[in-house]
Amino acid sequence: MYTQDSCGVCRIKQELLSNWMMADVRMEVLDKGISSNACLITKGDTKYILRRLSSWQQGYMEDKIAAVLSPLKISPRIIPSCSGHSFVAFEGSYYNLQDYVRGKQVHLCDEPLLQQAAKTVATMHKAMSALTDDLDMADRFSLLRLLESCKWDNLQDTLITQEGGIEKFRKLCQSLTGYDREYHQWIHGDLGTWNLLSDNAKVMVIDFGECRKGSIYFDVAAIVSSLLSSTEDTAILDRHISVFTQTYAEYNVPLDRDLLSKYFQLWFARGILANILEENHQKGKSEKAINYFWKQMNKFSCI
């Protein structure tokens, strides 16, 4: 049997955990993520994360990625089931079990932490460049898909209309579509601070639910803009971006700052369009988020 935690009711049955020969465990429902539902599994002094996956393809690729990253101590190990599989099917869904990563989500960022993050991301990209699997993992928020669904009238009351104009933003998005279709290697795909954990000694990456073929610049733009979102001084921002890119180059390849600037624009354009899509369904709910992404886009485009 398992005990129900006060944080919520865990719907996952003990039958599922029997795939890993687990009994007498404590289960706690964690905050729902973008691409998975997760439970913290505690058995004695050991903790695991049980995650529901979007597809068997995700389970397959997460196993491939963990196989090259977990030996480097930058991503959690996936626990094989009793039958030796990296994920299991249960009641129409797929699940995997991973080691629990101890650490705190990064909020405030200094130069040593930037260097740690850059080392981890560069090491991750270098290791993942060896993956040759050609599975079609959909980019749920691709720029073309978002543009096709966009209702531009939902920008009328935002800073985009006041400062630049809808048509100007539309043209910018169209100019960025080519960058969104660069498929050089496997990337994380959702590399914000919410998927980065630090324990002071190291930085680790979690949740590869959005992994796909893409450009390493997409991941770099995502994590750098997320780490430095609260930095307003342009001189400090420029220096911190340089700290990250220089450290990254030590462990993988040099980064082109002009190209990175395009991917900053792409990252925030996707955020704006995703919130416009949300606005289609919840009128008035996304204006604040759209304005935030617009300000961030302008800030990082000036560096």
Based on secondary structure, the structural category is: alpha+beta
Q: Do you know the CATH topology of the largest domain?
A: Aminoglycoside 3'-phosphotransferase, Chain: A, domain 2
Query: Can you summarize the main beta sheet?
Result: 7 strands, mixed
Helix content: 40-55%
Indicate the CATH class of the largest domain. Alpha Beta
Using the alpha-carbon principal axes, give the shape.
globular
User: What's the N-to-C terminus distance?
Assistant: 56 Å
Count of DSSP E strands?
12
Work out the count of structural domains: 2
Detailed description of the structure:
This protein has 303 residues and is α+β, with helices and mostly antiparallel strands. The chain folds into 2 domains: 99 residues, Phosphorylase Kinase, domain 1, CATH 3.30.200; 197 residues, Aminoglycoside phosphotransferase (APH), C-terminal lobe (Aminoglycoside 3'-phosphotransferase, Chain: A, domain 2, Alpha-Beta Complex). It is 43% helix and 16% strand. The strands form 3 sheets. Strands 1, 2, 3, 4, 5, 6 and 7 form a 7-stranded mixed β-sheet that branches. Strand 6 and strand 7 form a beta hairpin. The N terminus is likely disordered.
Task: Write out key terms for the chains shown.
single chain; 303 residues; alpha+beta; Phosphorylase Kinase, domain 1; Aminoglycoside 3'-phosphotransferase, Chain: A, domain 2; seven-stranded mixed β-sheet; three-stranded antiparallel β-sheet; 10 helices; 43% helix; 16% strand; globular; disordered N terminus
How would you sum up this structure in a few lines?
Helix content is 43%, strand content 16%. By secondary structure, it is of the alpha+beta class. Helix 3 packs parallel to helix 8 and helix 9 runs antiparallel to helix 10.
